[in-house]
Amino acid sequence: MGCTNCSTGKDGQPKGCKNNGTCGTDSCNKLTVFDWLSNMTLPNGSTPFNWVEVRFKNGRKVYYKNTENLTLSIGDIVATQAASGHDIGIVTLSGELVKVQMKRKKISETPEEIFKIYRKASQKDIDIWVEAREKEEPMKVKARQFAIDLRLKMKISDIEFQGDASKATFYYTADERVDFRELIKLFAREFRTRIEMKQVGLRQEAARLGGIGSCGRELCCSTWLTDFRSVNTSAARYQQLSLNPLKLAGQCGKLKCCLNYELDAYLDALKAFPKTEVKLRTAKGNAVCQKTDIFKGHMWYAYEGEWMNWHKLTTTQANEIIAINAKNEKVASLEEYAIDLVEDTKVDFENVVGQDSLTRFDTPKNQRRKNNNRRKNNNNRKNKNNRKSRPQNNNAK
């Protein structure tokens, strides 16, 4: 996603709006929401929903009540109420979809403490906000150095200033409880502002910072994923993935959230498969499952003691043999049910180029050799004829 200011400039170089996720057009932001009800009118007699979704730095969203009945649209910069002072954010959603989002996130429409929107941000508010945002990166470098000097087992991942520059929130991750009272004193003395420390999980840290995943796309947690469901190693087992922590872990160090995306489809497909620990009893011996192919619905069995010879069966054939074994009966052998392992692997390719041949520039090596030999023979004949036509110097004398 990119706005017009982020488009490509001269010589293929990206221009970039340099707003670091606070673009006014709201098209290159994180967790952008498309309001598909914006062009639809409300029924007669119904009042519009007076709550607004406001986004702050790195996808942090809060819902405010529009008590002043301001005319707001997506992308407007507004001054919102905070615990002390005011904050500056960007409107990302308004109207009936806000009600749906609040219901999905279980946010009450009548809370005890209601935060409201004061006004649309003035130029002075925006200047103070931008100036505060420019201080965050150098502050983060100093804050990390202070934590290292105090030997605290914590990592300061991000800093977020309040819109009026009266408070700075330090986001950190830690594996255990950290006593940062001395650290707060150093921060207050160095940065001359109110300090708030907020601990976040590893997944929330990756969502705030963003990045590129192993798939080559932006992280799901920083673009569209809002709820973090638990991911177990059983999800990888059901999908027959190798249990390699380096491949299964994301940038947060936890198991990738995308392991859950196709898990339901795999579980539905596995309902037709018999359990792999069930042995098939035949007159030739017991057979043990060695491998399964979920996509094709095939299973490979091998006799006990003959582990090198695999016999491929379909799920229906395996279930049929198990049903016969349940009646205390045995089948003759797996060879009667097994599918021939030799399959036709020839692939028919289509000519997608058109009338041109894909090998039109290729010349057979044999033809090249023949042409080279002909040239050599012709050159040798010419040399012999030239030698015969020359006069002999000895006879001339």
What is the makeup of the main sheet? 5 strands, antiparallel
Order of strands across the biggest sheet?
2-1-4-3-5
Q: What order do the SSEs take from the amino end to the carboxyl end, as H and E?
A: EEEEHEHEEHEHHHHHEEEEHHH
Rg from alpha-carbon coordinates = 36 Å
Structural class label:
alpha+beta
- Strand residues, percent: 15-25%
Distance between the termini: 94 Å
Shape: extended
Mean pLDDT: 82
* Total discrete domains: 4
Show unreliable segments: none
Helix residue percentage:
25-40%
Count of helix runs: 11
Number of strands: 12
Written account of the structure:
With 397 residues, the protein is of the alpha+beta class. The protein folds into four domains: 4-38 and 46-121, no CATH class; 127-205, GMP Synthetase, Chain A, domain 3 (2-Layer Sandwich), CATH 3.30.300; 230-270, no CATH class; 272-356, no CATH class. It has eleven helices and twelve strands. It has a five-stranded antiparallel sheet with strand order 2-1-4-3-5. It has a four-stranded antiparallel sheet with strand order 9-10-11-12, with helices on one face.
